[in-house]
Amino acid sequence: MGEYLPTIGLEIHAELKTRTKMFCSSKNDPDEKQPNVNICPVCLAHPGTLPVINREAVKHVLRVGVALAGKLADYTEFDRKNYFYPDLPKGYQISQYEFPLVSGGLLNGIGITRVHLEEDTASSIHDEESASTIIDFNRSGVPLLELVTEPVITSAEEAGIFARELQLLLRYLGASEANMEKGEMRVEANVSVSRSDLKGVPRSDLRLGTKVEIKNLNSFRAMERAVAYEIKRQTETLERGGIVVQETRGWNEGKQVTFPQRTKEGSADYRYFPDPDLPSLHLSEVQDFSTEALSVSMPELPWERRRRYLALGIKKEDAATLTSEIALSSYFDDLVAEIPSSVTPQAAANYVTNDLVKIIRDTAGRDTLDIAEIPVSVRNLSTILRLVTEKSISSRIAKDLLLESAGNDKDPEQVAKEKGLLRVSEGGDLLQIVESIIAEHVSVVADYKKGKLAALEYLVGQGMRATRGAADPEALKKLFVEKIG
Ligand code: ADP
Ligand code: MG
Whole-prediction pTM value? Predict the structure, then answer.
């Protein structure tokens, strides 16, 4: 018996963040709710109109290319991809075929085949009530990046990690919001399974099996599940002696299964040819588009930021959490600049990735946020971190203070003072508290004297209560034992 090895290749589309559409000056606004307002004769495909290339969109794709260390095209052109569908009024989509803007490159060690630029279609909305389909042209002609990977991904998990990393990169570059739920990023997964009968054959020499393309995956989880399901289905088909049919399948979220949609058309069916209405581009002639010019404006990339955090001594998981959200990592960077040298970056990371993230989730209730929406100021968290590091407050009090600082800019040290939360010193204050508890709990003290250890725990509990958790329980215990003696 041989082994069945899965192979996955991804095709990912992302709507680019530009002021206007790909080939006209209609507004590109993914949040527009009113249908058919951001439209014009070009994106409605009126006869006689002419497209004009959006520079900003070209630049976004080239920046992605630089980040992936791909090869930027010198010569590039746009092609017509011909097919009929109601959401495509021209009867063709302007895309790139032979001369993509970017070829090659790597992300997370996965080879990139190409990254090219095209235009989005209109959106079809199925209206249950009238049993009809209505079309919103706001999306028609929105610039779309398409990235294609080599068939080198080997598990659903790896596919998920790749897609998440690309989403993060697009966000860091400001190229796309890339929300899967909003359709700003769409992932199609090609899956095949091949049998290796020969031990020791390197993966790269494996003959790939027949692939199935899975569409309409609208979350990373759905993608991972659909890929895992498809690997299992194909493996079982082959084990039964069956054959895998090359086709496009959909993902049924309710039933958690893939289902056949159509057998795939070959590229010949699209009759690609260069769009005669658009000029071909010689990118080397455009100063702004040179690799050097693009590199200068590159921000710190997600993997560079993670590396920087690791170098600060931050744990791998925390570095990943901080980096996963631009606003969170900018906040963290500000915090690290603010904390005194007695506080380690890892201590700061603990509070940010656990307590602060929880507070943010509870208040914002969604996954992307703005730094302005983080409800505890950098200065206040820094103060709390200093107090807990110098042991003026316990870590429990620190968490309470942090919660209290959410949406409240009052100095936490002041708050702690006013509420008597600063750790009581070993001597004076604590001794008084211990003495009065002993006086008030005569029978408990008697129990303890008879050897009941639970009685001591009870007294310590009273002491913690009296100090609102600010006392050190060990110090309290010592004092009770001494005093009752
Ligand atoms: P098509 O011509 O059907 O569009 P491509 O060769 O352009 O196929 O590849 C499209 C996507 O499918 C790419 O992401 C590629 O990595 C992936 N792919 C190609 N062959 C396979 C295969 N046998 N198994 C899994 N993925 C594959
Ligand atoms: Mg293809």
Answer: 0.86
